[in-house]
Description:
Elements: H1 2-16, H2 20-29, H3 34-62, H4 65-85, H5 91-99, H6 104-116, H7 120-129, H8 134-162, H9 165-191
Helix pairs in contact: 1-7, 1-8, 2-6, 2-8, 3-6, 3-7, 3-8, 4-7, 4-9, 7-8
Amino acid sequence: xxxxxxxxxxxxxxxxxxxxxxxxxxxxxxxxRTWHVLxxxxxxxxxxxxxxVALGIGLGSALPTDWIGVFVGVAFLGFAAWTLRGDExxxxxxxxVRRAKGSALITVALAFTxxxxxxxTMLATVTLATQHExxxxxxxxxxxxxxxxxxxxVAGLALGRYLPQHVVRYGAxxxxxxxxxxxxxxxxxxxx
Length: 192
């Protein structure tokens, strides 16, 4: 379980760097109290990643086990490319933040749930769950996501002055590429 937790938290933390969810977190932090934003992110992430882990477990049992490592490695290379492409808030995301009324916690949780559906962190969690223990993957992916978004909420504006966004994006993409290549090589060694 500890290995699943460690791998998932690091992978999802990296996947979240420069993601639109971090931009959404920064936007909400300018409008609501920090603890409301972080709790809303945590609730949304726990729910979305629980569904992702369940999907990953189903896929993991349906796919041939010899090739799962290769599949995960290729997926990580795809996440590296996705990270390089970058993310930005669309007009609908900006409007959602501007129009948000009522409970900050509910607003943030719903916005994050919608933003995460089909996002690379959700897909990365599905991929991780095909190979790792479910509980460690779920908790680890949730912790990694919340930590990355907390970084955006608490220090994002200050770091943005000193560290350009493209440096963060390239660093995260490089780490995904290295992990992806390593997983493909390891998987091919197990197959052959």
